[in-house]
């Protein structure tokens, strides 16, 4: 069982930056694929970034070069550094975990948190 608690969302202007954090609770051993998914207003959830247990990462094309996912296992925390934010990045962002990384990439993970809102204005 995994519990995920996100923080760090907010409102920024286009071009700005935000850093999201996700505190991970439960007996994870960090063996899950961890990641971030988002749900834009009126749309379905989509994968944003993921990090495997071996530290390898992958990103959605829409955020490559702007977002960076990382983890600090000693602090049981997952991060998402978001730079050069654009209005299209406006969404509820969720921390995600699943044994199957494809589910994280697809935006349909087994576990996710309550979400943190990111709003980018032009």
Explain what this protein looks like in three dimensions.
This protein is mainly beta. It is 5% helix and 52% strand. It has one helix and eleven strands, in the order βββββββββαββ. It has one helix at 101-106; strands spanning 2-7, 10-13, 18-26, 33-39, 46-51, 57-59, 67-72, 77-82, 91-98, 111-112, 116-121. The strands form two sheets. Strands 2, 4, 5, 6, 9, 10 and 11 form a seven-stranded mixed beta sheet that branches. Strands 1-3-8-7 form a four-stranded antiparallel beta sheet, with no helix packed on it. A hairpin with a 4-residue loop joins strand 7 (67-72) and strand 8 (77-82). The longest helix has 6 residues, at 101-106. It is globular and about 40 Å long. The mean pLDDT is 95.
Brief account:
The chain has 1 helix and 11 strands, in the order E-E-E-E-E-E-E-E-E-H-E-E. It has one helix at residues 101-106; strands at residues 2-7, 10-13, 18-26, 33-39, 46-51, 57-59, 67-72, 77-82, 91-98, 111-112, 116-121. The longest helix is centred in the C-terminal third of the chain and has 6 residues, at 101-106.
Give the overall form.
globular
Rg calc: 13 Å
How would you characterize the largest beta sheet?
Answer: 7 strands, mixed
Low-pLDDT regions: none
Residue-averaged pLDDT = 95
End-to-end separation in angstroms reads 40 Å
The tally of strands reads 11
- Helical region count? 1
Which structural category fits the helices and strands?
A: mainly beta
Helical percentage:
under 10%
The arrangement of helices and strands along the chain is: EEEEEEEEEHEE
Q: What percentage of the residues does DSSP assign to strands (E)? A: over 45%
């Amino acid at each position: 069982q995994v519990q995920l608690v996100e923080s760090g969302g907010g409102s920024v202007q286009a071009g700005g930056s935000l850093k999201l954090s996700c505190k991970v609770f439960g007996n994870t051993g960090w063996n899950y694929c961890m990641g971030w998914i988002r749900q834009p207003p009126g749309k379905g959830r989509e994968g944003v970034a993921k990090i495997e247990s071996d530290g390898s990462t992958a990103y959605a094309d829409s955020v490559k070069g702007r977002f960076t996912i990382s983890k600090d296992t000693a602090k049981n925390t997952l991060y998402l550094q978001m730079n050069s934010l654009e209005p299209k990045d406006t969404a509820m962002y969720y921390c995600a975990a699943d044994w199957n990384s494809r589910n994280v990439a697809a935006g349909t993970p087994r576990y996710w948190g309550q979400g943190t809102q990111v709003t980018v204005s032009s």
